[in-house]
Design a protein that fits this description.
mainly alpha, 11 helices
Length: about 230
C-alpha cells in the first residue's frame, strides 16, 4: 500500500472518529441561544443548521453509502436531491405541526438506513430477494425519517412562535449548506481513492464497516429507548 493511500485511510479514520465524538447533539451555547431566542433570527439558525449537519455522523454515514458507487455528478445530485426533499419536508412539518416522535426510535430508524444502504451496496437484496428495490424511493423515504430526526432535536426547545417559520427556513438552509460542505469533502477523498485499485478491492470491507456502524448506532438508540420508558 502506498504512503499516499495510507494517508487517505488515516484521514478517513480521523474524520469518522471526530464526528463520532462530537455527534450531532446540541452544545451548551446553542442550547442557551435556542431557549432564549425571541423573534426572527435567520442568520443564527442558518449557522446552527450547518453545524448540526456537519457533525451529524448518522446522516453523513447514510449519504456516504448513497454516493459510494455513484460516479457521475448528475447521479450524485439526483440522489442527494431526493434525500434533501425528504428531510426538508419532515423537518418543517414536524416542528410547525408539533408532531412528536420518540427521538430514540427515530434515530434507531436512521441507524437502520445506514445498515440498509451498506447491505444494498453489497448486492444483498439481489442475492437474497432476487430484485433490487427502487433506490430513489428508498433514499426519499429514509430522507423523511432523517428530517424527523432533525425535527425531534429542535422540538426539545420551546421556540418563540414569532418568526418560527423563517427561523426554520434558515435552519433548513443551514442543513443543506452543511450537507454540501461535508459531501464535498467526502467526494474529494473518494475521488482520490477511486484512482487506486484498492477502492473496489476494499469496497466490500468498507460497506460491511458501514453496516457495522449502523448496527452499533441502532443498539445505542434502542438501549436509550428501553432505559427511558
Amino acid at each position: 500500500m502506498s504512503i499516499r493511500l495510507k494517508n487517505i485511510l488515516v484521514f478517513l479514520t480521523l474524520l469518522l472518529v471526530s464526528v463520532t465524538v462530537y455527534g450531532h447533539g446540541v452544545d451548551g451555547e446553542t442550547q442557551s441561544f435556542l431557549l432564549n431566542n425571541k423573534g426572527v433570527a435567520f442568520g443564527p439558525f442558518l449557522y446552527i443548521g450547518a453545524k448540526h449537519m456537519i457533525t451529524g455522523y448518522d446522516h453523513l454515514l447514510f449519504l456516504v453509502g448513497v454516493i459510494f458507487f455513484l460516479y457521475r455528478p448528475r447521479e450524485i445530485i439526483t440522489y442527494v436531491s431526493f434525500f434533501t426533499i425528504g428531510h426538508s419536508l419532515t423537518l418543517l412539518l414536524g416542528v410547525m405541526a408539533d408532531i412528536n416522535v420518540n427521538a430514540y426510535l427515530i434515530d434507531a430508524i436512521i441507524a437502520l438506513s445506514i445498515v440498509y444502504k451498506g447491505f444494498d451496496n453489497l448486492g444483498g437484496f439481489k442475492q437474497f430477494l432476487g430484485k433490487q428495490p427502487n433506490t430513489k424511493i428508498a433514499v426519499t423515504i429514509f430522507g423523511l425519517f432523517h428530517g424527523f430526526g432533525l425535527a425531534t432535536k429542535l422540538q426539545e426547545f420551546e421556540f418563540d412562535q414569532e418568526g418560527l417559520f423563517v427561523n426554520l427556513l434558515g435552519f433548513n438552509l443551514g442543513v443543506e449548506i452543511g450537507q454540501f460542505l461535508a459531501l464535498g469533502l467526502v467526494l474529494l477523498v473518494l475521488s482520490v481513492w477511486r484512482k487506486y485499485d484498492s477502492y473496489l478491492k476494499f469496497s466490500k470491507t468498507t460497506n460491511i464497516a458501514l453496516m457495522a456502524a449502523g448496527f452499533l448506532l441502532l443498539g445505542f438508540q434502542l438501549a436509550g429507548y428501553f432505559t427511558t420508558i
